[in-house]
Design a protein that fits this description.
542 residues; alpha/beta; Rossmann fold; 10-stranded mixed beta sheet; 3-stranded antiparallel beta sheet; 19 strands; 45% helix
C-alpha cells in the first residue's frame, strides 16, 4: 500500500495486552467541532459525537454502560452472552441446540464485541478527521472468521472453557463455519492481510468489494469420478459476521446516452439507461489485541424495482421479476466466465457497479467535512488492487467534472494524488483490456472521459518525444485492432501517483519489461516495490 503514513500514529501491541493502538486514535490530533448525522457528520456541531443523544442523555449513557458490562470476557459472562443469542436471536431452547446453532450463537456473541469496538474506532476516526485508506479489491479471501476473531480479541481460552461448560467443543464449533465466499486466491488473501494489518497498526482503512451470493465455486467428484465445479452457497445458513446497511443503498446507472463538454474538458451529461441498487454489507475486521477495528464493505446488487405487480397480474410472471433477476446477476459469482459476450459484459458491469458504489460512499463521507475538493487527497487514499477497479479513475473524473463542477486539470490533479495501483502480473496478455464497443454501450460517458484522458496524455508524450509514433502507439490507452480495446493497466498507471509490484524481482520486471515507456516518461519515482508478507497471527500463531 503506497500511503501507510495516513492517519494517526500507530503503537505496536505487545503480548501482555497492556499497549493499545486505539489509545492513539482516541486522542484526536486535529479535533474539530462537528455533529454526527445518520450518514456521517457535519463539522460545525459539538466537539464530540457522544454529546448529541435523542431523548434522555443519561438514559442512553446508562444503557451503554450496561451494554459494556454485558460484553465482559469472564467465562460466566460469555455463557450468558451465548445463551442470550440462543434464546432471543435464534429463538431456541438449550435442549434444542445443535452444533450449527451453537456456532451461530457463539459467533453472534463475538460479533457483539467486534461491533462495539468498530463503533468506538469509527467514532475516534471521525472526530479526528483522519486520512483513511480505501482498499479496492475484487476479492477478499478472509477464510473462516471465528477463529481469527477469537484470537485477535484475545478471548479464545475463555470461549474454549465456556463451550465446554455448555456441552460443546470449540474445535467442533469452529469446524461448522463456512469460508466467506468473497475471494479465491493470492489477490484476495493479500487484501485480507492488509485489512488485518492496518487494524492492528491503528491505520484507518476500509476495504471495498462485491457481496457475492455464490462465491466462486467448489470442486466435487461426480458419479463418473470426474472433477466438476458446482456453486458454493456460502450464505445458505446466513453469515453472523456481516451487518446489512439497507438504509445506505446507492443507485448505479448503466447504459444510457452521454454528451461531452467543450474541448473535452468541460462537464458532460449522462442520462437515460437503467439503475441498479447497490446494498452495502459491513464486515468488521479486528486488529490483534487492540480495540482498533476496520471494515470491509461489500456491495450486493438488487433491482430498483423488485417486483412488477402489473406484469404479474397480466400473467407475465417472468417479466414481473426480470429486472430484479438481471440486477442480481451482477453480484452472483466471483469471476463469471469470459468465454462468451454475456460473461464479458457481466464482468464489466461488476467492476463498474462496485467502484461506482464505493466512490459514492467515499465522496459522501468527504462532503460531510465541507472541505474543498482539492483537499480530497489529504483525507483519502485509494489503492487499486490489480486492474479490476481501474474504472474508478474515469468514474472519479466524472464525479469531479460533471457533478462537482471542477475544471479538468484540477480534477486530474486530484485524481492522480488520490489513486495508487498494485500490479500483480508481468505477462502482457494477462493485463485486462475491454472492447471499446462494450464500454461505449455500458458506460458511454466513461468512454468519452477515457478518450479525453488519452488525448491529453498523448499530447504530453508527443511534447517530450516528438515524432515518435511507435511510442505513442505503445503508450496509448487504446489498443488498435478489431475491435479497439481499452488498456486498463495503462489507465491505472497514468491515473496513479504510485505503482508497485508485489516482490522485489516482480517490481523490477514491471519497470524493465512491462512499463519501460512509462518509466522513461514519468521517471523511476512513480514505481516502487511493496513485498507481500503474511499475517503471522493467522499462519503461525493459530
Amino acid at each position: 500500500m503506497s500511503d501507510k503514513s495516513a492517519g494517526p500514529p500507530a503503537t505496536t501491541p505487545t503480548a501482555s495486552h497492556t499497549t493499545n493502538p486505539f489509545e492513539a486514535l482516541a486522542k484526536p490530533r486535529r479535533p474539530r467541532a462537528h455533529k454526527r448525522s445518520a450518514t456521517g457528520f457535519i463539522p460545525d456541531g459539538p466537539k464530540h459525537l457522544n454529546e448529541i443523544f435523542p431523548g434522555d442523555e443519561t438514559a442512553w449513557k446508562n444503557a451503554q454502560k450496561a451494554n459494556e458490562q454485558e460484553l465482559r470476557n469472564d467465562v460466566q459472562d460469555i455463557n450468558a452472552q451465548i445463551s442470550r443469542h440462543v434464546e432471543f436471536t435464534l429463538s431456541r431452547q438449550p435442549f434444542n441446540v445443535d452444533e450449527l446453532a451453537m456456532f451461530q450463537a457463539s459467533a453472534l456473541s463475538v460479533r457483539d464485541k467486534l461491533v462495539h469496538n468498530w463503533n468506538k474506532t469509527q467514532t475516534a476516526h471521525t472526530e479526528a478527521k483522519v486520512k483513511r485508506v480505501y482498499y479496492f479489491s475484487l476479492e477478499f479471501l478472509l477464510g473462516r472468521q471465528a477463529d481469527n476473531a477469537l484470537l485477535n480479541l484475545d478471548v479464545k481460552p475463555s470461549y474454549n472453557d465456556s463451550l465446554k461448560q455448555l456441552g460443546f467443543s470449540l474445535e467442533d464449533i469452529l469446524d461448522v463455519e463456512r469460508d466467506m465466499g468473497l475471494g479465491n486466491g493470492g489477490l484476495g488473501r493479500l487484501a485480507a492481510c492488509y485489512l488485518d494489518g492496518t487494524a492492528t497498526l491503528g491505520i484507518p482503512a476500509w476495504g471495498y468489494t462485491i457481496h457475492y451470493q455464490q462465491g466462486i465455486f467448489k470442486q466435487i467428484l461426480n458419479s463418473k469420478g470426474e472433477q466438476v465445479e458446482v456453486p458454493d452457497p456460502w450464505l445458505e445458513n446466513g453469515s453472523p459476521w456481516e451487518v446489512p446497511r439497507l438504509d445506505a443503498a446507492v443507485e448505479i446507472k448503466l447504459r444510457g446516452e452521454a454528451t461531452r463538454g467543450e474541448n473535452g474538458k468541460g462537464g458532460g451529461t449522462w442520462t437515460g439507461g437503467t439503475d441498479v441498487l447497490a446494498i452495502p454489507y459491513d464486515i468488521p475486521v479486528p486488529g490483534f489485541r487492540t480495540t482498533s477495528t476496520n471494515n470491509i464493505r461489500a456491495w450486493a446488487a438488487r433491482g430498483k424495482v423488485s417486483f412488477d405487480l402489473a406484469a404479474f397480474n397480466a400473467g407475465d410472471y417472468e417479466a414481473a421479476v426480470r429486472e430484479a433477476e438481471e440486477a442480481s446477476r451482477i453480484s452472483a459469482v466471483l469471476y463469471p466466465s469470459e468465454n462468451h459476450d454475456a460473461g464479458k459484459s457481466l464482468r464489466l458491469q461488476q467492476q463498474y457497479f462496485w467502484v461506482a458504489a464505493s466512490l459514492h460512499d467515499i465522496c459522501r463521507r468527504f462532503r460531510k467535512l465541507r472541505e474543498p475538493w482539492t483537499a480530497f487527497p489529504d483525507y483519502n487514499a485509494i489503492q487499486l488492487n490489480d486492474t479490476h477497479p481501474t474504472l474508478a479513475i474515469p468514474e472519479f473524473m466524472r464525479i469531479l467534472v460533471d457533478e462537482e463542477g471542477q475544471d479538468w486539470d484540477t480534477a486530474w490533479d486530484i485524481t492522480k494524488r488520490t489513486f495508487a495501483y498494485t500490479n500483480h502480473t508481468v505477462l502482457p496478455e494477462a493485463l485486462e483490456k475491454w472492447a471499446v464497443p462494450l464500454v461505449e454501450w455500458l458506460l458511454p460517458r466513461h468512454m468519452q472521459i477515457i478518450y479525453d484522458i488519452n488525448l491529453f496524455f498523448l499530447e504530453s508524450v508527443e511534447a517530450k518525444f516528438p515524432g515518435d509514433r511507435a511510442r505513442l502507439a505503445r503508450m496509448s490507452l487504446i489498443e488498435e485492432g478489431f475491435p479497439k480495446r481499452v488498456r486498463m493497466a495503462h489507465l491505472a498507471v497514468i491515473g496513479s501517483h504510485k505503482v508497485n509490484g508485489v516482490a522485489e524481482l516482480h517490481s523490477d520486471l514491471v519497470k524493465t519489461q512491462l512499463f519501460p515507456d512509462f518509466v522513461e516518461f514519468f521517471g523511476k519515482d512513480l514505481f516502487t516495490n511493496v513485498t507481500n508478507g503474511i499475517t503471522a497471527r493467522r499462519w503461525l500463531y493459530q
